[in-house]
Amino acid sequence: MSRITLLFGANSSGKTSIIQALLMLKQTITEVTDPTTVLLPNGSLISLGNFREFVHKHDIEREIQIGLESNFQNKMLYAFQLRNDILEMSNFEGIAEKWLEKNSKIDNWRSIRFQGENKGSSQYHVDLINYTALFDEYFKKKERKTDLIEELEKRKDYSQRTIELLEGETKILEENNHKEKNEEEKKAYYRNMMNILFANIFKSLQEGSETDPSEEFRHIFSQLPPQEFELTSKLLKHFSGDQILKIFDEIIENVKNNSISSLLDFKEEISIQNPLLLRSSSFLESSQQTRLEEETKSLAQIMKLVFTNIFRDYCAIPSLKRIFEYSNREINHQISRLIFLGPLRREPERYYFFSGNVPLNVGKKGDKTAETLFYSKDIQDAVNAKLNDLGIDYHINVTPVSGETKDIFSVRLLDQILKTDVSISEVGFGVSQILPIIVQSYLSKSSTICIEQPEIHIHPGLQTKLAQLFYERIMENNELQYIIETHSEHIILRYQKLIREKVLTPEDLSVLYLTRKEGGIICKELKMDQKGDFIDQWPEGFFEEAFRERFG
To answer: Is 471 helix (H, G, I), strand (E, B) or coil?
Structure first.
């Protein structure tokens, strides 16, 4: 997908399926109220029927897979299947490729993946695969092991300073509190005490230390943020300062003796109800906290947990929790930006009623176009200016039907040549088809606008000018993107011309050609060079009709 993506191909070649897949994701994210619903095939945007109707070859034993690759960070692949007459997510996998490429010290970082499967009750369990052999290979170089030992000793020093502060503050607080308390009150008091401790220690560190206070606690347990007081307090409750420092001594000794793998435990696990619908971290439940509660009396297990967290931070191995929070924020953001305009826009009416609601888009059939023009004079002015550029000799006026009833209005067109004022319902059908596209293009500030067959009922010259409009809008607004399903040769010819003129780059344009094959549908990207010529040959039979009619 580029700033402008064009979908070409014969009828029923699968162009619409690309847009429908995106719209089903948006429909799921924006309309589902039950978080256990993994996909919503029927809603306000599209209606795909039941699973049997839209799965390939109607084979309900198959999985549907949806893959997402982000320039920001991650590749993720979700698989869905019908089980017990309910559509469920069966498994998924991913890799934080961009993040690892930028941050990781591990040479073979491409092997670090995360995988998950449905283990029942709509809970999906994800594991980071254990690749300790890679880390043994990494530390064959002596200088790398020396660096790690220095890092561990530094963190032990941070821990010692922090523990001294904690123990001093704890003693003062407990001496000042002699009230009799039941078990619940003791727990509440202890949590409150930890909050006070952190606040006081942060303050004292800010005043008397070069180290950032939040770093002090991050360096004890790098994956436990300072605000997680309860988890940190449980660890300190079960282990004295001396025991925690002893953990560091034993870790350092193991590293010196080349026993790094025995200290690592990468079975990080998270349970989530639905990765696609994740709107906040409330659906995430790190098993590390559960494991810590179960294993607090095992010094060896705590040593493993502490070293794994430090080592992962040191080698820049991603946290599953953070990956899912980040990637789902991106998925939700990108998918929620989608706006869809179908192939046949609604016929114009003689009169309209303003609903009182501010239109955010013109609707999939353009039915809110008139209301948008009524509400926004700025959009109306921009559209009139563009109609003039497009060579459409009409000027739009949105006027109330009467002075008293201002919410009933009509869209009138002033013929610039004949100077005649007519209703939009009385002019050529092509105007009603192109108007929603123009209005949406100016209404959208940060959107991906999907349009099916914008060229319908529009003559060839106007098709090239419409292509020019899409180009102008992406140049004016970096957060605007178009995905266009089309059969128009004239649209692609205009973009070739703009590339030749060096005002549009080949990277700004993605031309995808879809072909039906026996095994399914093939989607191929046809690349252009800097002169606007296609590097990849067009499939036979497309855009050749004019040549054949003349010379065949």
So the answer is: helix
